[in-house]
Amino acid sequence: MRKTFLFLDTIINKVDAKGRVSLPSDYRAIVKELGSEIVCYRSLTAPCIEGCLEDSLEKLATDIENSTDFFSETQDDLTNLIFGDAKRFTFDSTGRIMLTEKLLQYAQIKESAVFVGKGRKFQIWSAENWVKEEQRLREKVKQNRPTLKPEGEN
Amino acid sequence: MRKTFLFLDTIINKVDAKGRVSLPSDYRAIVKELGSEIVCYRSLTAPCIEGCLEDSLEKLATDIENSTDFFSETQDDLTNLIFGDAKRFTFDSTGRIMLTEKLLQYAQIKESAVFVGKGRKFQIWSAENWVKEEQRLREKVKQNRPTLKPEGEN
DNA sequence: TGGTATAACATGGTATTTTATGGGAATCAA
DNA sequence: TTGATTCCCATAAAATACCATGTTATACCA
Fold first, then answer.
1. How many domains does chain A have?
2. What's the gap in Å between the CA of B130 and the closest CA on chain A?
3. Disruptive mutation site among A2, A53, A154 for chain B (greatest number of B CBs within 10 Å)
4. For A27-32, what is the mean pLDDT?
5. What CATH code is carried by the domain that includes residue A37?
6. How far does the CA of residue A134 sit from the closest CA of chain B (Å)?
7. Is B60 a domain residue?
8. Is residue A5 included in any domain, yes or no?
9. Do A8 and B70 count as a contact with CB atoms less than 8 A apart?
10. Which residues, in sequence order, are CB contacts of A97 under 8 Å at separation 6+?
11. Do the domain assignments include residue B149?
12. Count of A–B CB contacts within 8 Å?
């Protein structure tokens, strides 16, 4: 993966009656620039959709392949879940993707979808769930500041 | 990151009705020279906006990628908070960036923004809050001079 | 050193482009 | 045919680039 990229920011977009959502323009730019595709799957740990570049899943596959932990059953199971669940999404000329019923239901998304950048990947939340989640995270930070020092290195 | 750079000085610029602010010219020079971009997010520890180069976040993303596995819970929470809040800011031909409502509100910035250099990053304060903060810092130094030794850098 | 010319900068305003989003037609599949 | 998916067009709003001006800082010269 030569070029670097980051999925950033938190953006709220509407989901219309057909299930279409605009992918944030920044995200689109990344996909175009890298000539890759967006892949989405149900998060294994939270009630949200998770997305990344197809390249990232490629990397995951390779990592598993080369893993010294040949017998890691857990990892194996998890990857099965992800690869089995993941689906490629292309956006139309206006930048929209069409999420599936399965994904929308799992994330409890109705009218609006919240895109949350995570660096190499991103998540899509329902408005309600994201409010709660962000609150939880900020709460956690307050009580555990030491582990969160992105500034410290360099 | 080959080239070195430092965000320095304290500079007050006006914020217009649209939320536009001139990025200090020194900062602009750094961004240009390194071919990077400015990224801003709400400080986790103070009522101010924090900014850095996208390169710094890139490095963080890579570190996280390499230090924890794909399914790590720590990675999950961390990345949500940092990357979800961070936003890329490009400046126009006159050197201005457009800060978002969210950031301005969090830092309680109305008409003027105070840019404070912090080396590898910088902060943006409201005029009022910065006065207080600087006072607090100087007060702290006076009473705690011994701790100002090489080890305690930041 | 003092004064002036020049360049850089901050800042207000305006124009242009991009983006999100709704709706409809065309295409495809069950 | 019916339902769904893709493609295309239209529009309003928001983001961005561009232009103009006064001010400050810098360079230059006597």
1. 1
2. 20
3. A154
4. 95
5. 3.40.1550.20
6. 8
7. yes
8. no
9. no
10. A20, A21, A23, A38, A89, A90, A91
11. no
12. 88
Residue environment code for A103-139, b if the CB has 16+ CB neighbours within 10 A, otherwise e: bbebbebeeebbbbbbbbbbbbbbeebbeebbeebee
Residue B28 forms part of a structural domain: yes
d(CA A117, CA A120): 8
Looking across all nucleic acid strands, the nucleotide with the smallest C1' to CA distance from residue A90 is D6
Q: Which of A2-6, A75-79, B103-107, B148-152 has the highest mean pLDDT?
A: B103-107
Number of H helices, E strands in chain B: 5, 8
Q: Which domain holds residue B112?
A: 10-144
- In the chain, the amino acid numbered A117 is G
pLDDT band for position B4 (cuts 50, 70, 90)? confident
Residue at minimal CA–C1' distance from D9?
A94
Residue B85 contacts A, CB cutoff 8 Å: yes
Residues 30-69 of A with CB under 8 A from B: 44-46, 60, 63
